[in-house]
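To close the section, here is one more complete example, presented without commentary so you can practise reading it yourself. The ligand is 6-O-phosphono-beta-D-glucopyranose.
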Amino acid sequence: EKGGYEWFMLKEMDEQPQAVADTLLGRHSQTGQLQLDEMRLSDDELREVDRIVIIACGTASYAGLVAKYAIEHWTRIPCEVELASEFRYRDPILDKSTLVVAISQSGETMDTLMAIRYARQQKARVLSICNTNGSTIPRESDAVIYTHAGPEVAVASTKGFLSQVVACYLLALYLAQVKGTKYGDEIASILAEIDRVPAGIQRLLDEGDQVRKLAADLSGSRSILFLGRHVGYPVALEGALKLKELAYIHAEGFAAGELKHGPIALVEDGLPVFVVVPPKGRDQLQEKTISSIQEIRARGARTIVLAEDGDDDVVPYADHLIRLPKVPTLLQPLVATVPLQIFATEFADQLGHDVDQPRNLAKSVTVE
Ligand code: BG6
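Output:
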């Protein structure tokens, strides 16, 4: 039941700190040793993996895009991400050293299911990341990592997404452990950072009023853009998808670096644009994103900037500033997504839409 909430989606957003903690629970020791009980692939089989292909649909595919950055960085195994509905119709090259990772909250999405059946026929090994115990996709996989987020009722995924991202990190770190691309103490320190994330999510939920007020102010907008770089790019895609799904307005996510290759033509006076700014430090991602903000603002965009605590460089260019708790770059999607979920929910609510059951959508799509 809704437990006093107006929408399941609000309840499920509030459950995110617990969902993330539960996905981590019992899976690692203080020293960083990972233990994944449902990992039915042996360490020897995993050491043979020379390529990872992630397949999923919708929000789950954005969890996969986030995972790609972490998997390649921590394991040095090449990783690609593909929509399940495209994957099997292009005659993909697969063999037994390919690990296909299927991500699905429901475990019943037909496109994803057909893709893993195809992958297994081609002798690839299939690992699924799934929230629903005993559902079809994990039953037909060689191994499974359950997300333990608890039942998700609202059609648009929230805690499902965050727990999928966490499960992907666990997989990446497990592969790093088995392959020896990261030492135990490095893995332990990354896990310690992930352990601190639920508190950061809680803070953003507690500060939700600021975002709700912004959503009310902008609820007359017919188009909103989202920009991000690196792992902020899939966050931008997810922010836009949430708004399409719930508010039925035009919303698009772009890679900030692509701006000048097309999307900047869309910018006009007063257009709201969310920008996810990466933490300072790595490859000048933060500086480059700030110059994107300057470019769109010079053309009249109303900028809504998500930046970590203490990043003062963004202040002059932000019409609205949403502060994020400090986390390492690769973990930023776990916090940056939360205000975007709050925004889309409130925006849809302001328009009088059914937040839990958006028109034309279903929670699990069991047709191709
Ligand atoms: C869509 C839902 O139809 O399926 C999305 O509307 C969801 O919210 C997508 O992300 C994938 O679902 P699942 O269960 O495979 O993660």
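Once you have examined the tokens, check your reading against these statements. The chain is about 45% helix and 15% strand. The beta strands are 51-56, 79-83, 98-104, 125-130, 143-146, 223-228, 250-255, 272-276, 302-308, 320-324.
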